[in-house]
Amino acid sequence: MEKHRNSPFSSRGSLTFFTGLCIGFTPLTQARGASDTENNTGDTLIVESALPSLYGPKQSADPKFSRPVADTTRTMTVIPEQVIKDQGATTLTDALKNVPGVGAFYAGENGNTSTGDAIYMRGMDTSNSIYVDGIRDTGTVSRDVFNTEQVEVIKGPSGSDYGRSAPTGSINMISKQPRTDTGLDATVSTGSAWLRRATLDANQAINDTTAWRLNLMGEKTHDAGRDNITSERYGVAPSLAFGLDTPTRLYLNYLHVHQHNTPDGNIPTIGLPGYSAPSARTAALNSAGKVNTSNFYGTDSDYDNATTDTATMRFEHNLTASTTLRNTTRWSRTKQDYILTSFMAGDSNITMGDPNDVGSWKMARTMNTRDANNRILTNQTNLTSTFSTWGIGHDISTGVEFTRETQTNYGVNPLSAPPVNIYAPSSKVKTAGLDRNGANANGRTDTFGIYLFDTLQMTRDLELNGGIRLDHYRTRYDSSSLCGGSGRGAVACPDGVAKNSVVKTVDTSDSGNLLNWKAGALYHLTREGNVYINYAISQQPPGGNNFTLAQSGSGNSANRTDFRPQRARTTEIGTKWQLFDQRLLLTAALFRTDIENEVEANDDGTWSQYGKKRVEGYELSAQGNITRNWQVIGGYTLQHASIKNGANTAQDGSSGLPYTPEHAFTLWSQYQVTDALSLGGGARYVGGMKRGTDGATGTPSFTEGYWVGDAKVGYRLNRNLDLQLNVYNLFDTHYVASINKSGYRYKPGEPRTFLVTANVHF
Q1: Suppose 522 and one of 289, 333, 478, 532 were both cysteines; which one would form an S-S bond, judging by CB atoms 3.0 to 4.6 Å apart?
Q2: Which alpha helices (DSSP H) does 618-658 contain, by range?
């Protein structure tokens, strides 16, 4: 057994099997890893060891994951800062393109449009399972990565890790912190559609144990493929650290980001595969062809403003060499207000000029508005420790969390805009601004959580791990409406109350407990590889993941607070291999997630919890260095997502789960040709997807799969300056990036664009 563990080329059968699974990611027959060498020259022993891979981080930055990524019994992808830089990625959504099957595939409900990082993972909305340094990040905004060290994507239930969360995974952004060295990195970029962006990352050591760091960002651009769509944002992130490289450390961080954008209400799906005119009256649309993908159907009054402020204090103290206590306090606020114009292209929404000339036809606009304020205050204490009892090693992470989340949605008077021409839209329309009317919605959730994780080293080869978390939550929600209106959701005025008066419509509270847990086992086959199994239970309360605003009590609603928590059960079996001086990590996993207690509509208009969903499949990935100069990150997933019980099927009538590509592939590879020249390239494939079901007729029930290729050239002029050129969508592929529930609207993929960046280092 000893010989088996220490031989770097042992277990050839297992390695050959895994190589076959991952073919296309790692051509092992052509790659030669840089191995450690020992040269004994006289009395001097020289040990040469390869540097760690910048593409393959070894460890999660979250202390709840105390084991290395290679020994974590979960599917986990860590996207490091170097990958983000090489790809020229600027947002979280861009960075997540490195994870197969994860993306912004859903464009929103009917007349409403998704904004910000609307991320789907394994068939479920994960937008409310985005964390920053392990703390929930609220708000429907697009997150910039200028202050991000790495992005950690965990697939499968994360309830035992973070409390309530999406049943299929979570995303954790790790913030940059001060270091003991002194240096400066700056970037200046320009690109298609007159993109202008600059960043600064300055780190200054004050003395041996104290340092400050400052990250700045500014960007202004137009959407290269869309008329009138603009984006402007800036950010500042100062931080200060005391006690670095000592047993007691204190970190102070602040983040301020402001965005001013023109939101995108998407374009009609007319002419896409699967489209047919909604009625005989509009049959001419069948031969009219697609609209121009650059069309903008909004108004000159459309805007989206968002401001995020976050203050964090983290204290760390090493009680012993193997025990560390951490305490984190954070206050964060996101304010967002917007006017976003979309449209409905159903038969009743289309007006004709000349019945024989579709160029004169118009469709109704829908004005979406939002004026909201999200706040979070939390204090988290964590203790990690390694020790042994009776010959069994323990790696423990335990802690308590207190969190208060509040949200206010300010009621605003409804807005309207005239119909818009289908094929020749004009935005030369001015509407009133947001005018608060007092019909607000207010929610507050207080949560107390306690958790314990332990990895037991039973033998040299066998590890057992488990974790349990208990959360107690209390939610309070109230909302008001203007009475006397008409249409869906209208509220009648009580006797003696004048029309358009503000009346309380909901005033409810709820409390409960959520128990989440996980258990796993890992066996080291060799020094390089292991096999593992994991089982996890995760729950989230009624009202959806963002249950701060459960919208009613025990009445007729899909968000009733007296419903049982949604429950997800996941089983995962996998293997992980570290090759080439442990600089390349290969993984393969089989998974199945069963979700129950889904809320479904009954025939009589009431709601019940009989829905069940299942997502199952497998995933392969490769990350790190194949050779000293050849880096790679990529993966492939096959996921069968289906509704096992319930009427909420896909629009095509099948049991398929919408917004879930069955096949998804991503690969990015970079090669250092010379000391000065580097070449990079990548490809992404997203398979066809089904959309949700509603009363829309004639709209596409699916999207087609697509391939997108990217490329990069980097050149180092000297030790202080290098240049890089990134080209995105190299072959100018036309594709549907996301589609809305009714199928009336879709967001076209970005056309071919370029980005030139000058990187400065001191």
Answers
A1: 532
A2: none
Classify 66 as helix, strand or coil: coil
pTM of the model: 0.90
Residue 109 phi, psi (nearest 5): -80, 140
* pLDDT at position 543: 57
* Structural domain spans, the chain: 2-761
Of 592, 707, 689, 683, whose CA–CA distance to 635 is shortest?
Answer: 683
What is the spatial distance between Cα 759 and Cα 762, in angstroms, rounded to a whole number? 10
The tens digit of pLDDT for each residue in 199-209 reads 999 999 999 99
Alpha helices in 92-133 (DSSP H): 92-95
* Calpha distance 261→115 (Å, rounded): 11
Torsion angle (degrees, nearest 10) of CA 19, 23, 25, 30: 80
DSSP assignment string, 463-489: EEEEEEEEEEEEEEEEEEEEBS--STT
Count H helices and E strands in the chain, helices first.
Answer: 5, 39
Q: Quick one: average pLDDT of 344-357?
A: 88
Among 414, 421, 415, which residue's Cα sits nearest to residue 364?
421
pLDDT tens string 485-540: 877 678 889 888 888 899 988 888 888 899 999 999 999 999 999 999 999 998 88
Contact in structure between 431 and 415 (CB atoms under 8 Å): yes
* Amino acid letter, residue 213: R
Q: Angle 654-655-657 (CA atoms, 0-180°, nearest 5)?
A: 110
Distance CA(124)–CA(543), nearest Å, equals 15
**Other C-beta atoms within 10 Å of 246: how many?**
12
| Selection from 642, 638, 740 nearest residue 687 by Cα | 638
Tell me the C-alpha to C-alpha distance, in Å, between residue 87 and each of 96, 432, 711, 721, 736. 12, 41, 8, 18, 22
Question: Is 50 exceeded by the pLDDT of residue 697?
Answer: yes
- With a cut of 90, say whether residue 752 has pLDDT above it: yes
Q: Are 97 and 666 in contact (CB under 8 A)?
A: yes
How far apart CA 500 and CA 435 sit, in angstroms, is 14
Are 119 and 130 spatial neighbours (Cβ–Cβ below 8 Å)? yes
User: 269 forms bridges with which residues in the sheet?
Assistant: none
With beta carbons less than 8 A apart as the criterion, state whether 627 and 657 touch: no
Mean pLDDT of 273-281: 92
Please tell me the distance from the alpha carbon of residue 71 to that of residue 74, in angstroms, as a whole number. Answer: 9
Residues in the chain: 762
Does the pLDDT value for residue 461 go beyond 80? Answer: yes
Strand order in 169-175's β-sheet? Answer: 75-80, 148-155, 169-175, 130-132, 135-136
Superfamily of domain 2-761: TonB-dependent receptor, beta-barrel domain (2.40.170.20)
Q: Going by C-beta distance under 8 Å and a sequence separation of 6 or more, which residues neighbour residue 202? A: 183, 184, 185, 213, 214, 215
Vertex 474 angle, CA 470 and 477, to 5°: 145
